[in-house]
Amino acid sequence: MDPLCTASSGPRKKRPRQVGASMASPPHDIKFQNLVLFILEKKMGTTRRNFLMELARRKGFRVENELSDSVTHIVAENNSGSEVLEWLQVQNIRASSQLELLDVSWLIESMGAGKPVEITGKHQLVVRTDYSATPNPGFQKISQYACQRKTTLNNYNHIFTEIIEDGESSEVKAVLNDERYQSFKLFTSVFGVGLKTSEKWFRMGFRSLNKIMSDKTLKFTKMQKAGFLYYEDLVSCVTRAEAEAVGVLVKEAVWAFLPDAFVTMTGGFRRGKKIGHDVDFLITSPGSAEDEEQLLPKVINFWEKKGLLLYYDLVESTFEKFKLPSRQVDTLDHFQKCFLILKLHHQRVDSGKSNQQEGKTWKAIRVDLVMCPYENHAFALLGWTGSRQFERDIRRYATHERKMMLDNHALYDKTKRMFLKAESEEEIFAHLGLDYIEPWERNA
Length: 444
Prior knowledge:
This protein folds into 3 domains: 1-141, BRCT domain (Rossmann fold), CATH 3.40.50.10190; 160-234, 5' to 3' exonuclease, C-terminal subdomain (DNA polymerase, domain 1, Orthogonal Bundle); 235-441, Beta Polymerase, domain 2 (2-Layer Sandwich), CATH 3.30.460.10. Helix content is 34%, strand content 14%. The protein has 15 helices and 14 strands. The protein has helices at 46-58, 81-90, 104-113, 170-177, 179-187, 195-203, 209-214, 222-229, 231-235, 240-257, 267-270, 289-306, 377-385, 388-402, 425-431; strands at residues 36-39, 62-63, 73-76, 100-103, 238-239, 262-265, 275-276, 279-284, 309-315, 336-345, 362-371, 404-406, 411-413, 418-419. The strands form 4 sheets. Strands 6-8-11-10-9 form a 5-stranded mixed sheet, sandwiched between helices. The longest helix has 18 residues, at 240-257. The chain is elongated and about 85 Å long.
């Protein structure tokens, strides 16, 4: 007797359709009539689910697109039995005690054997002993990984991230008032100045930028000279209107040489922020590698002739196509990139004049351009969108939960010993078994 049969002898009604269910596939011969499978998309992703459904059908299994009364086995990935039951509750479905809740490993082993393998404890999804049919609606488990939770710019927990009792933290106040901290914060506000240089200047007794700039014994790099020269502009915030105006300049220059190139604003502005300190752009093209290599030098020359280029530092690519992703969560990528300071005229900004000095008609804006191969653009886009904490967590998740390696270049499955291709961020999330998180929900 069908485990999900009801007492009624009338026609069965199908359960609500699962979001993202695939369209009907071409008919295949069903070898195992007593099993009816439903593969859960939750945490697996549409692409991987569709792939497993089609493969299982080719192997002779009956797989339903929708959850119906005839289903005998629910197959899930990265879900506990309790999570599957909670999902069924949301769909207003009451599960039979005879319904098998199985890990995807059972299906993979069965397809490898060419027949359903024996179900053992390692295949069955665990339902926690304290699970209730009516869980507390106010309780939701928070994942340790930022890539498993949505974080928008609207933080509803501001009241909890203040120091309630005194209105301030004595420890934090001590750090903020520390002379060394204050000096380092000031020094590193200069473009091209890092912690090493800040430490050197602090030990030399400097405490102000004016003293540093007036000292004749100090030698500055080209980048630091630009940082001091355009300091007031660069230390001020870049508005979204200014970022979009810069985007027009970047696309104009890029498309003059590569009309088929894709230019995407990344970083905080892609995550929905209204202000930032610089503007990042990812550039890719389905054209030849030679065209890609020559693009940024051409763009630099284009802006020089127009009098818009105030500073640039071109870093050549050291990218190797089949090199394994880095194990370090904070590693930099090896794509060709250019760090620039552009002159943005105020009339180009839709919202009107922006933080301009009296009599000055332009503002210096920090811009980063990254050029990546077309087949790697999805990974580069994910990496350059941020936030930094989100990127750290999605790489840690790939390593510790999926036995994979992820960076701005590629995704490698250590179990299968193969690189996983992706043409979009959605496909990367699907490979990792994660629900897709929009860019504006990655502000961890």
